[in-house]
Amino acid sequence: MTELMHDHLPIHLTNLAKRYGNIYRLKCGNTTMIVLNSSDIIREALVKKWSDFAGRAVSYTADIVSGGGRNISLGDYTEEWKALRRLVHGALQRCCKHSLHNVIERQALQLRKVLVDYRGGAVDLSEDFTVAASNVIITLVFGKEYDKSSSELQQLHRCLNEIVALWGSTWISALDTFPLLRKFPNPVFSRLLREVSRRDEIIRKHLNQFKSEGHRRTDVITGSLLEGVDRHQTEPGVVLTDMHVHMATVDLLIGGSETTAAWLNWTVAFLLHRPEFQTKVYEELCTVLEGRYPKYSDRQRLPILCSLIHEVLRLRPVAPLAVPHKAIRDSSIAGYFIPRNTIIIPNLFGAHHDPEVWSDPYSFKPERFLEGGGGSTRALIPFGGGARLCLGETVAKMELFLFTAYLLRDFCFVLPDSEAPLPDLRGVASVVLKIKSFTVIARPRTGP
Ligand code: HEM
């Protein structure tokens, strides 16, 4: 238990790997956990032996936040889960093909406008990044977008953020490990219940609105999901319900907002530490794009920008421990026997700092991903892999590319003044790895 209570668990688990090797076991109450710390070992479990390790632990608290396991991220590997993931994956693909590029472009331009309106003042950009990333996923899911002052957007963020933060806290996980504690008052748990019911109220309102309109808008994910569930009713076997649509919507909203926003904050922070690299990216954008805004199809021609994206994903994978997997049958990893029901923690942060794979692993060096730099994107696994591969990988990759390209084409990010401290790069680790808040000036570029 004490091993799991460290304030920065990914760093602590990575340090334990120095002592015990890239695969080791932790025991907590009745639960056995295996921590995997290298990309080869993680790939063996998640990709090569995906069907052995595709499960999720069923627990008292996971059931509460996931509507009884009826969501994607926390649902165990069952026929019902497979049908739901297939349905959501299909809806997401269709909707992305239809509109993703345009939706991100619109949000990137909106973000540009917000930054210009700051007129060179020092600001914390985290909320603006969250609004931009959330609006992408909210547009895909509900077909609407909000501005920063919208009380509904603020309410939704507050409760989704709270749920993620509270669920990651030891006060809550202790209830799973020591069931006796459930008999005692627990204010943190009461807060979690309150936020879950607030979340459900907001989502229910949207879904009811959709249903009252006859949910004919299949260009929007919710419409597509509701239609898919109706179609499913007529097929034999698994039954999917509106509750599955409700929980899948929550999955997409949580997965789609804090992750991308956290990553954008990290990028700005690292660039403040290495301003000359920011200039390199800008010069590349000017030369290749000749003044126009980028398209996702330009990425092969922008290797310096892509090296920046890879390096930030390497150093700060925003879901540093993925979501714990569970062995659904007896199996093995790296030659060790792994019994059924063992919890598997893929330490993506550790794999991205493995000194056997990365030279000078703790330094920010995007150049390692340029030709001759020695770094290989094959050893990067920020989105996990196999049956549980991040469902939003396509959305996230396009967002990271377009948002970063738009921002660095139009702005130079500088410290508020020459005496201001550089952002602290250690971060705060929960389910999502975030940077501590910092202020920055987004100075509009005037030309090459
Ligand atoms: C930089 C951005 C992102 C990163 C680094 C990231 C990373 C991850 C990781 C590591 C996992 C766990 C994989 C595992 O359990 O092995 C995951 C799961 C998931 N992500 Fe993402 N993610 C990002 C953005 C998104 C976006 C934009 C969405 C939604 C559109 C999303 C939706 C999900 C969902 C639904 C799951 C659960 C998948 C499952 O359990 O089958 N993520 N993500």
Automatic annotation (TrEMBL):
Heme binds at C390. Signal peptide: none annotated. Its EC number is 1.14.14.16. SUPFAM superfamilies: Cytochrome P450. It comes from the Eukaryota. One of its GO terms (cellular component) is endoplasmic reticulum membrane. Keywords: Endoplasmic reticulum, Heme, Iron, Lipid-binding, Membrane, Metal-binding, Microsome, Monooxygenase, Oxidoreductase, Steroid-binding, Steroidogenesis. Its cofactor is heme b; heme. GO terms for biological process: hormone biosynthetic process; progesterone metabolic process; steroid biosynthetic process. It is a peripheral membrane protein. InterPro entries: Cyt_P450, Cyt_P450_CS, Cyt_P450_E_grp-I, Cyt_P450_sf. It is found in: Endoplasmic reticulum membrane; Microsome membrane. It holds the Pfam family p450. Its main location: endoplasmic reticulum. GO terms for molecular function: heme binding; iron ion binding; steroid 17-alpha-monooxygenase activity; steroid 21-monooxygenase activity; steroid binding. Belongs to the cytochrome P450 family. PANTHER family: STEROID 17-ALPHA-HYDROXYLASE/17,20 LYASE (PTHR24289), STEROID 21-HYDROXYLASE ISOFORM X1 (PTHR24289:SF17). This is Steroid 21-hydroxylase. It comes from Takifugu rubripes. The gene is cyp21A2.
